[in-house]
Amino acid sequence: xxxxxxxxxxxxxxxxxxxxxxxxxxxxxxxxxxxxxxxxxxxxxxxxxxxxxxxxxxxxxxxxxxxxxxxxxxxxxxxxxxxxxxxxxxxxxxxx
Amino acid sequence: xxxxxxxxxxxxxxxxxxxxxxxxxxxxxxxxxxxxxxxxxxxxxxxxxxxxxxxxxxxxxxxxxxxxxxxxxxxxxxxxxxxxxxxxxxxxxxxxxxxxxxxxxxxxxxxxxxxxxxxxxxxxxxxxxxxxxxxxxxxxxxxxxxxxxxxxxxxxxxxxxxxxxxxxxxxxxxxxxxxxxxxxxxxxxxxxxxxxxxxxxxxxxxxxxxxxxxxxxxxxxxxxxxxxxxxxxxxxxxxxxxxxxxxxxxxxxxxxxxxxxxxxxxxxxxxxxxxxxxxxxxxxxxxxxxxxxxxxxxxxxxxxxxxxxxxxxxxxxxxxxxxxxxxxxxxxxxxxxxxxxxxxxxxxxxxxxxxxxxxxxxxxxxxxxxxxxxxxxxxxxxxxxxxxxxxxxxxxxxxxxxxxxxxxxxxxxxxxxxxxxxxxxxxxxxxxxxxxxxxxxxxxxxxxxxxxxxxxxxxxxxxxxxxxxxxxxxxxxxxxxxxxxxxxxxxxxxxxxxxxxxxxxxxxxxxxxxx
Amino acid sequence: xxxxxxxxxxxxxxxxxxxxxxxxxxxxxxxxxxxxxxxxxxxxxxxxxxxxxxxxxxxxxxxxxxxxxxxxxxxxxxxxxxxxxxxxxxxxxxxxxxxxxxxxxxxxxxxxxxxxxxxxxxxxxxxxxxxxxxxxxxxxxxxxxxxxxxxxxxxxxxxxxxxxxxxxxxxxxxxxxxxxxxxxxxxxxxxxxxxxxxxxxxxxxxxxxxxxxxxxxxxxxxxxxxxxxxxxxxxxxxxxxxxxxxxxxxxxxxxxxxxxxxxxxxxxxxxxxxxxxxxxxxxxxxxxx
Lengths: 96, 515, 289
Known about the structure:
Number of strands of chain C: 10
Distance between the termini of chain B: 23 Å
Helix content of chain B: 25-40%
Number of helices of chain B: 15
Oligomer: heterotrimer
Number of helices of chain C: 12
CATH superfamily of the largest domain in chain B: Glutaconate Coenzyme A-transferase
Strand order of the largest sheet of chain C: 1-2-3-4-5-6-7-8
Strand content of chain B: 15-25%
Largest sheet of chain C: 8 strands, parallel, barrel
Shape of chain C: globular
Strand order of the largest sheet of chain B: 5-14-13-10-6-7-8-9-28-29
CATH superfamily of the largest domain in chain C: Phosphoenolpyruvate-binding domains
CATH architecture of the largest domain in chain B: 3-Layer(aba) Sandwich
Distance between the termini of chain C: 19 Å
Largest interface: A-C, 21 and 18 residues
Strand content of chain C: 15-25%
Order of helices and strands of chain C: EHEHEHEHEHHEHHEHEHHEEH
Number of strands of chain B: 29
Helix content of chain C: 40-55%
Number of domains of chain B: 2
CATH class of the largest domain in chain C: Alpha Beta
Radius of gyration of chain C: 20 Å
Shape of chain B: globular
CATH architecture of the largest domain in chain C: Alpha-Beta Barrel
Structural class of chain C: alpha/beta
């Protein structure tokens, strides 16, 4: 059983997204708490992008806080993957 | 309630509560003047009568200022202004109600206005630009009546032609004498040109000069003459000098903004406009100012002497005047201390009123003589209509200012913008709030290509020959949405919180309450 | 041979800059995982650059990634980056042909079947790198250019880095010569004072004169000036066209030797003229023959 730890990736710079993750209690599901400067226009799309990355890594219980400053999809994906790796959810080897 | 559709396809009600009957926009030059100018009552002052009164409260009692009046102010002190708050504080103290404030622009410093609206002192606002808490409050539907949003030229026209009747004009005067002569070039709150105060002073029923810098009689130079001023009040401070120069933006250092600016200069050259007698205006944004930098380089390389630069004058324009690149500067608003110094000392740097600058209903405003204007936008649509009133979230954060006026007057109107602002595509199918109609907008310059309005095949051909990176506006929109994803549309409430008038007084769009 | 007049560095952990990299018209974009990225962010930058390579349109700019050195993170960078199809990898602090061969081996393992071969550019930044320049240039067929990094180099020498560059003169000529001997390109060190346009132009003119084909670029504002220096001038093009005309005239007349302006036109001169015209046509500065 891998010991998962809370972790963070990304910054609050323009066009970036800061993703903070903490492992969730079993059964808690994938919880995404999103703050964004483009919430009205892209809120659902951002959550979807994060959720897709998480699902691909077969993670089911995790708490994700995301503070978005207008990141494009590729940035959201990269930051989500980085945070996942930093929590220990995915081993760095598997990222490749 | 019947609906009308105006010439750019905006649906409008026939009349709006708190505003009146809607005259729909029918085209940039389609509405003609059909009235004489209005005129204030003739008054007289006896020899020996004193105009200097001890405080603003005395002015209120002498006039007397009553419930329901329209009080006007200029915005040359920008975010350092103290006069609007001083005057409204007195109005509140005296228990006045239902006033309309006609201030040429609203800044964060005017936040106390929100309280005055909440307690009924102020019910109406008439302005050309809004930012800060007041803009937010407008968007949230705080005002009992829709705000009237005009252009700088349109405000002058409305004052002259009677649509905006001013009972009392309060003129924040950086320098004044005891008989009411006013200028903007001396004193601790020196702000340069007083262009936006000039129509107010000429047409208001009563004019009050409020100054913190009394000079011996007679003051010179004179921007507002004693013959139109009823009262003079000295206060400790009319505004914070640091806030006054806050209007200046620096030339952008963002490499993408610089690339856009450089491309803009190439567009101007390819249009064949960069020759002797060239005339030019830029907006106040960082990318627009950067365009001035590249235009200057091209002018120097080509040995071009321009006729005039217009605006919104900054120290950068002053440098160009002093370097002989322009013969004159025409200044309706001085943005920084270099511009203030220059307008005071250099006869080639002219102060003009808002009417001379941009009114559509006179025998020719300065914008009519422009070759090129470079402007910004929060949004632009595939018909080239531009939004400078609301942000992409639907909240009011600006206003035309001189945008629509300069766009109408100039031979070539260029909008400069990053294709994506943060993540948001700047090009929409339809802008949320139309301010400047597409027929007056010629070129959009982004970092990923240039779009030319289809009604300017002449420009398109020239740019093609020059090898500029041309795309259709639809192609640019598709590119933006490919990069960022298609944004969800903003929904707004039903209540109309602002009426956006075009420079001729017709209604080009409305702003509805933000959700 | 690719045009590499400008190779613009972009910090690999900065999404705002990565997504705009294609806008500036540089011949190549270098997505930087090394000096521009703090040690604790190497993992984040690696993933960001990988995503950027897959999704961002860099137009006609060559996509280059500067990985970390072999003794730090290169072995993590290469497997993550190579399958995302960069055009080339810039290898920093190369000191020996074995360094290049090891990188080439790792790259070959990481390439997907059918993927275009990823090229290598060796960045020589140390005295050893300079000493082994020719061996490094010929170490592997993937190597298409040698680049010179003067900041680290002068630090190793214990010499002061100056704008006019006497202290790096020999290293520069070694890089040019070694690359030329190996039949590959040489790319000069960046000019680091972003506000000194005159200095940039002078430094670039020197680089061109020495035989460099391009310059590492650290700010988009430098691009136009560098291109203007490396581009053939109207005079160059005119001269080259006259040379080719003279050659053709000699051929049709059956003369053994061509001459122009009283000077003999021999093979090296013709080669130089052809290169100028090739470049000019590529840049749209001259008509097709």
